[in-house]
Amino acid sequence: MITIIFSMFTDLGKFIVLWGLCLLIFSTSGYILFNELDAYKNLYSVFVVHFELSLGNWLLTIYDDLTLTDTAGVVFHMTSVLLNMILMLNLVIAILSETYARLAPQKTGLYYDGLIASMPRYQYDKMFGVLMILPVPANIISSPMILIFMCIKSANPKLVIRVNRYLTNFVFIPYAILYTVTFMAMNLAIVPLAYLVTLYSKIKDIASGCCSRRKQINVLEDLSPSSTCGDMLLFLFFGLLFLTLSQLVDIYFFVRHLFQRETTKLSNDKVKTVDYRSFVILEDIVDEEFKIK
Question: What is the DSSP track for 120-132?
Fold first, then answer.
């Protein structure tokens, strides 16, 4: 949408140039023909008269004292109104409508085009990255470091990369603290909800008869792990404590990933897996074969 608006402004600029030339032509002609009138004494006042009439503010009484008869002035004035107000107004509407109709179906492509074009400026630089990540006005601190980096770069480029990495980690510490505190607060806020949902799930499993680890389903045995009464009681008394302590592990990996550069990219590809029941079926088939032999 921003690209479409900027394109409209470009077309609007071309229209303003054309409109200005049209006003200038009528203003010059009116200054030459009707110089005896007070409204046409100088070129600036004539231009203002025709600019106002192009916006709909005009009077025909200014031609009452014209030597050429007021009819000539009225005809000239109405011709200017016709061109500068009616035709030009419709022209600018047509130009903007055509630009929007041409670019609106391409707005998604234009958005991604602008996004891709802006990517290089956000890439992290291994040598001078710390000079760019500081926000305003803290980036004033990095100004003296530019000369230091330039001197070190000419002597030892590898040292510049190492110093930049250490300084980047140091500068990132306030952000890391803010992110970690936010992460902890959100996790602790949903711990009670997770406790209640898990407890409800365990009670539901027990109530539906899924607590048996050797329940007969047709001919096969269901050996899949499930909730037992002991599990439910253990989680009832200690589940909230376990969930709270597990946040320490989550925080450790969260902070570790904050400062980790080489991370695996997320993928939407589904990993092919075999469920537990397939192994049970395979085991029963093998047992049947051995019994037959």
Answer: GGGSPPTTTTHHH
Q: Tokens 């956000």 correspond to what residue? A: 122
Q: Are 46 and 31 in contact (CB under 8 A)?
A: yes
DSSP designation for 262:
S
Strand ranges for 130-280 from DSSP E? 215-217, 220-222
Report which DSSP code applies to 243. Answer: H
Query: What is the chain's length?
Result: 293
- Is the model's pTM score more than 0.70? no
Of the CA atoms within 13 Å of residue 172, those in its CB half-sphere come to: 20
Contacts of 213 (CB under 8 A, 6+ apart): 222, 223, 225, 226, 228
Q: Is the pLDDT of residue 140 over 80?
A: no
DSSP of 22-73: HHHHHHHHHHHH-TTSGGGSSHHHHHHHHHHHHTT---SGGGTT-TT-HHHH
- The pLDDT value recorded for residue 272 is 59
Convert the pLDDT of each residue in 70-95 to its tens digit: 688 888 888 888 888 778 878 888 88
Residue 197 makes CB contacts below 8 A (sequence gap 6+) with none
Residues of the chain with CATH 1.10.287: 2-116
Q: CATH topology for 2-116?
A: Helix Hairpins (1.10.287)
Strands 215-217 and 220-222: antiparallel
Which among 81, 97, 69 is positioned nearest to 4, based on CA atoms? 97
Give 164: exposed, middle or buried? Use CB within 10 Å, 0-12, 13-18, 19+. Answer: buried
What confidence score (pLDDT) does residue 215 get? 45
- CB atoms near residue 253 (< 10 Å): 10
At 164-213, the pLDDT tens digits run 788 778 878 888 899 999 999 999 999 999 899 888 888 887 777 644 44
- pLDDT value of position 221: 44
